[in-house]
Amino acid sequence: MARPKYLPDNFTLCLIGTVILASLLPVHGQAAVGFNWVTNIAVGLLFFLHGAKLSREAIIAGATHWRLHLVVLLSTFALFPLLGLALKPVLSPLVTPSLYAGVLFLCTLPSTVQSSIAFTSIAKGNVPAAVCSASASSLLGIFVTPALVSLIVTNQAASGGTSPWHTIGNIVLQLLVPFIAGQLLRPLIGKWIERNRGVLKFVDQGSILLVVYGAFSEAVNEGLWHTIPLSALGGLVVVSAVLLAVALAVTMFVSKRLGFNRADQITIIFCGSKKSLAAGVPMAKVIFAAHAVGAIVLPLMLFHQIQLMVCAALAQRWGARDTSGESGSGATRPAAAVARR
User: Fold this and answer.
1) What is the per-residue pLDDT across 59-99, written as a single tens digit (0 to 9) for each?
2) Is 186 exposed, middle or buried (0-12, 13-18, 19+ CB in 10 A)?
3) Rounded CA separation 36/289 (Å)
4) What pLDDT, in 10s, does the model give residues 159-216?
5) 3-class secondary structure for 243-264?
6) What whole-number distance in Å separates Cα of residue 328 and Cα of residue 256?
7) Angle subtended by helix axes 97-108 and 277-287, to nearest 10
8) Which residue of 66, 139, 169, 315 shows the fewest CB atoms closer than 10 Å?
9) d(CA 12, CA 16)
10) Would you say 174 and 286 are in contact if contact means Cβ atoms under 8 Å apart?
11) Do 287 and 149 form a contact (C-beta atoms < 8 A)?
12) Which residues contact 221 (CB under 8 A, 6 or more apart)?
């Protein structure tokens, strides 16, 4: 039986189920301490496998396109934070202060890797450049995101009052070190991971679900749903839609005005308008106080689903056009499967 098109994907349904489970049966006490250790191990394993999976050849192939990468990075780490601050008079009345802090955190995050590459491929964009831009964004985000959070997220209760250098140190230890270890061991385990992509998907999605369950458990124990009205959740949908629409419009306009060909424009649009749930949830766990993480990641979870639906529609539409002579090398159909993640 075919799956109804109006239903979200399985991972989104699992996220919703995890939030409901944490709301009804939150983990607490000594069980929460043990669960936190399990989550840390899962997140470390996730970044280890991503490091082992990332192809150095693909990165080198797209690394020379520095103008494209610069535009993507500026969109990711400059345009979004500026939008989050500039639109505060319009956006902040729609949500609670804790949710607005989550929106600002969302604006500081790196781009996605898997879905950016997949949508670029489906739309017949420059796939090698997308691999390079998305991967560079993900790596730079380990350092740039906590620094930006310290500058624009001023809620000290949410951030726990820790210094950005302490936060960066924690992120390097929990995320970057396992990633580098995976890269170093890629010659030994890279082929096995390529043959067993389901393992990476299981760890990827499983670690996010663990972090979400732990974060919302802590937030529920602190009274999360008593402080967020339904009107604020509706406002959050509007905020997410506005941010995505502006980012898409700006990247379309800028990439065209700077003279990029169609394939490069597609790459800039998809890589420059996306935010990573896979990187954002573990980072939130490290950067923010435990009781605040639930409200902080809620805007990211919603934005993630909206960006997937909108970008999937754009990719299918653009991919159906005749772009012979301008489509980037490496655009392959199998990447469509990755876009569902």
Assistant:
1) 565 567 789 999 999 999 999 999 999 988 888 888 888 88
2) middle
3) 13
4) 444 555 666 676 677 777 887 888 888 888 888 877 877 777 777 778 778 877 877 7
5) HHHHHHHHHHHHHHHCCCCHHH
6) 16
7) 120
8) 66
9) 6
10) yes
11) yes
12) 26, 28, 291
Q: Which two tokens stand for residue 23?
A: 């709301």
Measure Cα distances from 226 to 71, 121, 209, 222, 257 in Å: 41, 43, 23, 9, 48
Q: Which residue has the tokens 């989104």?
A: 12
**Rounded Cα gap, residues 160 and 243, in angstroms:** 26
Rounded to whole angstroms, the Cα distance separating 141 from 275 reads 11
Q: What is the pTM of this model?
A: 0.73
Domain 10-320+334-338 top-level CATH class:
mainly alpha
